[in-house]
Amino acid sequence: MRTALAANGWFATLWCGLSVLAVVAPNAFALPSFARQTGQACAACHVGGDWPQLTPWGRFFKLSGYTSGKPFADKDGLDHLPVGVFGQAGVTWAAQPDNRQGQPVVTPNGVFRGEQVVGYFGGKVADFAGVFYEYQYGNNYPGWSGATGVVDARAVQIFNPGDGELLVGVDLNNGPSNQDVWNTVPAWAYPFYGSPIAPGAPASTMLATVIGQSGGVGVYALWNRKWYAELSAYRVGTGFWRWATIGTAFGTAGGANYLAGYNPYWRLYYTDDSGPHNWMLGTFGMAASVYPNNLTPSGPTDRFTDYYVDSQYQYLVDEHQLTLRGTWYYERQKWNASYPQGLSSIPSGNLNGITVSGTYGWRNLWTFSAAYFQSNGSSNAALYAVTGPTGNVLSAAPNTTGYTLQANYLPTQNLKLQLQYAGFVKFNGLRSNIDGRGRSAADNNTLWLNLFLAL
Amino acid sequence: MRNARPATPVVIAALGLAVGFAHAGHAGAQADWRAPRVVAWECAACHGIDGNAQLPTMPRLAAQKATYLQAQIAAFRAAPPTSSIEIPPALVPSPAVPADARTGPNARIYMIGPAHGLTVEDAKSASAWYAGQKPQPGPAGDPAQVARGRELYAKGLPGTGAIACQDCHGADSAGLASFPRLAGQHASYLVRQLEAFASGHRASGSPMHGIARDLPPDDVDALAAYLQSL
Lengths: 455, 230
Hints:
The structure holds two protein chains of two kinds. In chain A, the strands form three sheets. A 16-stranded antiparallel barrel of chain A has the order 3-4-5-6-7-8-9-11-12-13-14-15-16-19-20-21. Chain A has helices spanning 2-24, 33-38, 42-45, 56-63, 206-209, 381-384; strands spanning 73-74, 77-78, 83-94, 113-126, 129-139, 144-159, 166-173, 214-223, 227-236, 258-259, 263-274, 277-291, 302-316, 320-334, 348-362, 366-377, 386-387, 393-395, 400-412, 415-426, 446-454. Chain A has one domain (4-454): Porin, CATH 2.40.160. Chain A has six helices and 21 strands. The termini of chain B are far apart.
């Protein structure tokens, strides 16, 4: 506990220091690096300034390789700092922090704690290329450790065949969908941030699971800012990719998912806009081969094929911003390696789900959001079994249903106060007795109050 | 140990492509190497290298009058720079805000910061570049709306302060002297500017304030649809 206390003390000092600087010297610290580079407000790229939601211009800024604006240094010297710091602290209250036997499930409950400090580099590195690299130092309750966050490096070129505009790019990133510009993909999906100690859904697709654990290279094209196509390949984040997967425990049993070879990821969407309205319909997915044991990456593999369909609608005028999002997915699982070893109870199965969410923003000051999600899949006792006191299996399904309600207040562009309620209707296929010892799904509901500060 | 290789063929291929891009063209990832540096780095991502902005919230600048563009950059620069962390609502008119400054919320979010970073020479060369670009025709609108817009453009709204647009902007709406070109402009942008004139967020361009206040919303939409279709 010494480490935890020391880390919290250190965090508190840093937090107070940053807060004082933010209040006392607002103009000494321009906004995070992209705003310094472009000279624009956060709200130019982020809907209502409420990051990480993107506006049409924000999406193009990312696809064009973060190249708009001034280089951070030129022959006259340093123009602006291309680095920034982001701090997060909060408190979580669970409906039932302890289980019926008195052991903690959500801990520490009701205690304000530093959650993470993120340092990042973001900016253009050449006229045709830009880099976004995050390093997070996060609270593990107890103890703190470092890890890479989102890594996204691009080189782009724009051509003008005929009267059209063709943007072609190559991208390096550390997880499928990290490179995407829509808030409907796993890496950037609503609610964007959640309590680090709240219970989460027991199953997710392989595409979502290997975010931050893998290295990917892709090429993409954007035609007339409407049609987008991308093809990428992902491999395990070891060797060359270790700079982008710091903190992933490849050497610990179960510490990572070990992708075999290169695994294709695709993305296609169409987007259009008219006045204050813009919308998108798209699809993406991945075919992944994964070794059942990350410590012995050889031999037969399990095979996961993920199909996603996503759509978003935005209405953006000066005072009001509305975004509606929908994501549907289906994962086909072939447990070719795990099933013979007894690591999966079925030879093949699936996982599917849907998430719908909406956010209304008012005057770049407030945002209010709501979401409903459902995740269903094949029963698989080796992975999801919930057993009663006598060893009887109550459920072996990952099926989880829930919702979130959220209110954000941004008194300044780099300060965000967030209140989020995450509720569960069903957890692990059960509404009640989800641990076989009397805990109900709704006992996992949490209220999370969180403070963000970006510099 | 395949995972111990320092770099994989795919990574090498990607880096090769990146190097190719480095040699393919000029700044801001744009292909037209003749554009001034300021256009490529500061303007093109929103307004397009040729001024035919694709995002409907961003105005088209191709063939716009250079004097008008310079005056607008000056109007953005006349507004106090947006503080780094404040939320940018529209500025309330006050003695601290010069009368000719552009102070609308979008001006504050998108333009005031970059405009303050421009030198007078930058503003001149960017304005000259866009004035020399070839405009693309805008999308055709609803025929009835376009017809109404054409009538308003030629005759104004008789009995009100909304005089004929063509008197200042030209019969072909390509602009006259310091009066801006309107042909082919995004309809949503035109509507927003008329709103800004009516509310006073665009304080300069004095004939426009009374005109904008006298135009009913349906006629504003019709005018915008007509002008966009040119």
